[in-house]
């Protein structure tokens, strides 16, 4: 896999590319059993039309015959529909089957900061591996992240959007757990809640996805979750030293419920959901809104893939997903 990680980025255009990252169980093994899994990647670009023009020349075999026939204009138009991502699925590289999505930078930031589709944002709540990025986001430097900075989607950089998205997920998870549970809970509880944000409502969970997916994600990538969220835990505890206490040895967080804590957490969650917080039915309504977003983005992606993916690859992919669902029952 190390050779794959190094070589895969070389095949894609770099002119308009902001970042290329890997995610999912293909990159992060979720159990001790060695399996041949499709490797998922996401590519964020500045100009989708130009990027697809160049990529069709470099990697024409990645596109279905229909998409090559209609060309990059239709491809970039389809990309702008629904969850704003265009996927090429099932191509082979160094013995691995790959699937990569392409999204433009404004749509990328839009979903990270507003959770419009919970598609990109949900994937970036969980561990990713940055394979290529521009110097501005190479290290995702937290020293440059200011949670109190006003959000301007057009002007903010990708690094800020990635950090803000994760911080919102953490605040949301703590807020929900503080309503449902005691004042002390495990990191694991938080990571499970974060992972569930983008799975509730996904149409695949009804017939074509592992029913224990979230549990396997946490078990297989627990240390990576800790690495991701520990800096944000510190921001919370430094900001609210009398309200939030982190025990890094026991991997627990203790909160002292107060109006100050509630206001801060409310301020740092997704903007539309802030309006729900004062209502007694906050959690059911919150879940309903997110599930609706996830449901429609997953439906949109399924429809788009039925058009853009080669039929033979699409059938194999669906069968593999359905087998995972059946085996997890």
TrEMBL record:
Keyword Endoplasmic reticulum among record annotations: no
GO biological process terms held by the UniProt record: cardiolipin biosynthetic process; CDP-diacylglycerol biosynthetic process
Keywords annotated in UniProt: Lipid biosynthesis, Lipid metabolism, Magnesium, Membrane, Mitochondrion, Mitochondrion inner membrane, Nucleotidyltransferase, Phospholipid biosynthesis, Phospholipid metabolism, Transferase
A Pfam entry, by short name: Tam41_Mmp37
Pathway: Lipid metabolism; Phospholipid metabolism; CDP-diacylglycerol biosynthesis; CDP-diacylglycerol from sn-glycerol 3-phosphate: step 3/3
Cofactor(s) needed: Mg(2+)
InterPro entries given in the database record: Tam41
GO molecular function: phosphatidate cytidylyltransferase activity
Membrane topology: Peripheral membrane protein
GO-annotated cellular components: mitochondrial inner membrane
Entry's family note: Belongs to the TAM41 family.
Localization of this protein: Mitochondrion inner membrane
EC identifiers of the protein: 2.7.7.41
Originating species: Intoshia linei
Keyword Mitochondrion: yes
Protein name: Phosphatidate cytidylyltransferase, mitochondrial
């Amino acid at each position: 896999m190390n050779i794959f990680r190094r070589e895969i980025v070389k095949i894609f255009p770099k002119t308009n590319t902001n970042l290329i990252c890997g995610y999912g169980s293909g990159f992060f093994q979720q159990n001790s059993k060695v399996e041949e899994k499709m490797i998922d990647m996401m590519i964020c670009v500045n100009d989708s039309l130009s990027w697809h023009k160049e990529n069709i020349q470099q990697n024409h075999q990645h596109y279905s015959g229909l998409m090559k026939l209609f060309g990059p204009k239709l491809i970039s138009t389809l990309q702008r529909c629904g969850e704003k991502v265009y996927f090429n699925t099932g191509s082979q590289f160094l013995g691995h089957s790959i699937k990569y999505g392409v999204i433009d930078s404004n749509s990328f930031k839009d979903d990270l900061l507003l959770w419009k589709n919970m598609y990109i944002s949900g994937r970036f709540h969980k561990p990713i591996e940055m394979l290529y990025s521009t110097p501005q986001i190479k290290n995702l430097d937290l020293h440059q992240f200011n949670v109190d900075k006003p959000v301007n989607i057009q002007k903010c950089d990708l690094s800020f959007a990635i950090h803000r998205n994760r911080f919102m997920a953490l605040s949301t998870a703590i807020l929900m757990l503080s309503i449902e549970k005691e004042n002390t809970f495990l990191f694991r509880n938080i990571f499970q809640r974060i992972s569930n944000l983008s799975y509730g409502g996904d149409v695949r969970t009804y017939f074509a996805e592992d029913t224990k997916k979230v549990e396997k994600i946490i078990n297989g990538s627990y240390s990576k979750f800790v690495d991701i969220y520990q800096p944000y835990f510190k921001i919370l505890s430094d900001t609210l030293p009398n309200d939030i206490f982190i025990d890094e040895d026991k991997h627990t967080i203790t909160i002292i419920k107060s109006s100050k804590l509630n206001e801060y957490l409310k301020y740092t969650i997704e903007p539309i959901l802030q309006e729900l917080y004062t209502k007694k039915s906050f959690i059911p309504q919150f879940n309903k809104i997110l599930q609706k977003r996830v449901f429609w983005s997953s439906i949109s992606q399924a429809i788009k893939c039925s058009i853009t993916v080669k039929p033979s690859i699409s059938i194999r992919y669906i069968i593999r997903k359905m087998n995972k669902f059946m085996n997890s029952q």
